[in-house]
Amino acid sequence: MGPSPPAQPHLITMISPPHDTTPSTEETAERPLLPKTLSILCVEDNEGDFVLVREHLTDAHFYRPTTLSRATSLAEGLKMLAGTSENGEPPFDVILLDLSLPDSEGSSTLEHIRQHSQTAPVIILSGNEDRVLAVEMVQLGAQDYLPKYALNGDLLLRAILYALERQRFRL
Asked: Which whole-number Å values give the CA distances from 79 to 1, 10, 116, 169, in the listed order?
């Protein structure tokens, strides 16, 4: 096997809601409040894992336009978090975070992200199935800890929606 293709930092993907699935009034009333456009930052250095996350998010039906941006290192993610959106709000509504990055490992990765973004909920995506570590990450402020092997569109959708709601009540 040859070397993996170079990572594409700052990749922004627009994930649009499906055209043939307009929510009913009942569905809209039950749906949690989402931003007009949902902006997700995925801090993931592995190209294959990022592609899977992007595919799963495409399969999820947010009923809102969704943007997915990517950072391939902690330093790059922190730079992206330092900006503001067009309306002066924080640049991302939710952060999907891998704990094993080229420039950071483990709980310090989460701690650095939390220091630079107090408003966006953080969901850990990990190849590590250690439940003790998962509980520790939630105790340190992560909204969820999802093993990468179990990811699918529905699980990511639920984790993001629930994290946004929990975070809204924390603020």
From this structure: 33, 11, 9, 27
